[in-house]
């Protein structure tokens, strides 16, 4: 196994942990704010912290106007639209429902990579993917299997937001694989912060101008925004772009299956959401599936 591939795996594993912490933490803040305002606060912090580094990167790499425009256009999709759909869905649904539906995003990315990038899957990758998919499907159908109803404390509208997020994320992941291949990951990440700041700032102002910044008096709003600005944005987004550059898109997507293994226990402890034995077993199946798909035969 190459050193580059090992580094990509490590980057994506850390990314999954950091993003897995996000849903329960953000859920604690959303009763006091809106997704637009919360995302605006998150990107204010991220922009302030990275502005000196962004200036250094622009001077060093001297990106063309075309390159900057490409990043802005793609991040309007991968930052503004993707995050709006995800956090609006999270506000209306439970953390567990959100994590489970969002965990289906690798399926969309893998299908997209096969159709549009002509990537091929090895036998262990297909088997690992199928195990992870079966585990995710079992969790997604848990309310129907155990309770005889289609939802369990979630919202159909919220779930639809998250499902749409999966489709948009697939488009973004495939485009980023091609367009960001030769760009420094941190440069892309820092420009995306500005895209988020401007877009969500405009949306926050026009939807609730009188409430802007007033909700920061609630501790969870500031704490979650700070977490998502530094570990959740500066570190995690850079790791994702770096990791995706080192392996196939379909492989990178499989790491998303690990995020519920982080977010769901946190939701159980801090939000008192219920997790059944079916969920625990399915999560173990997902983790094993990811391991199997990413395993490489040892060279003799």
How would you describe what is shown here?
Helix content is 79%, strand content 0%. The protein has helices at residues 3-29, 35-61, 65-92, 95-102, 105-116, 123-140, 142-147, 156-179, 185-207, 219-246, 249-254, 259-270, 277-294. Helix 3 (65-92) packs antiparallel against helix 8. The chain is globular. 46% of the residues are buried. The mean pLDDT is 83.
Q: Shape, please? A: globular
Count every beta strand, where a strand is a DSSP E run of 2 or more residues: 0
Number of helices: 13
Question: What percent of the residues sit in helical stretches (DSSP H or I)?
Answer: over 70%
- Runs in which pLDDT lies below 50 for 5 or more consecutive residues are none
**Proportion of beta-strand residues:** under 5%
Overall average pLDDT: 83
Structural class: mainly alpha
Please give the alpha-carbon distance between the first and last residues: 12 Å
Radius of gyration: 19 Å
Q: How would you sum up the major sheet?
A: none
């Amino acid at each position: 196994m190459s050193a580059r591939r090992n580094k990509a795996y490590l980057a994506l594993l850390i990314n999954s942990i950091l993003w897995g912490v996000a849903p329960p933490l953000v859920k604690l803040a959303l009763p006091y704010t809106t997704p637009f305002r919360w995302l605006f606060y998150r990107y204010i912090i991220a922009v302030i912290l990275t502005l000196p580094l962004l200036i250094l990167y622009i001077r060093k790499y001297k990106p063309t106007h075309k390159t900057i425009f490409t990043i802005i256009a793609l991040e309007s999709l991968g930052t503004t639209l993707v995050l709006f759909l995800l956090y609006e869905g999270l506000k209306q649904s439970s953390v567990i429902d959100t994590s489970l539906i969002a965990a289906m995003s690798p399926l969309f990315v893998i299908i997209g990579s096969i159709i549009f990038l002509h990537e091929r899957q090895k036998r262990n990758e297909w088997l690992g993917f199928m195990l992870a998919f079966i585990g995710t499907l079992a969790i997604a159908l848990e309310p129907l299997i155990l309770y005889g109803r289609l939802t369990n404390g979630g919202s159909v509208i919220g779930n639809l937001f998250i499902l749409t997020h999966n489709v948009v994320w697939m488009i973004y992941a495939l485009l980023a694989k091609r367009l960001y291949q030769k760009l420094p990951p941190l440069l892309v990440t820092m420009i995306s912060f500005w895209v988020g700041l401007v877009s969500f700032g405009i949306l926050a102002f026009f939807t609730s101008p009188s409430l802007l910044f007033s909700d920061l008096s609630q501790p969870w709003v500031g704490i979650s925004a700070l977490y998502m600005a530094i570990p959740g944005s500066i570190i995690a987004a850079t790791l994702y772009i770096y990791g995706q550059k080192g392996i196939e898109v379909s492989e990178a997507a499989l790491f998303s299956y690990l995020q519920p293994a982080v977010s769901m226990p946190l939701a159980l402890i801090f939000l008192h959401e219920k997790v059944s034995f079916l969920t625990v077993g399915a999560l173990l199946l997902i983790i094993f599936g990811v391991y199997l798909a990413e395993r490489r035969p040892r060279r003799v």
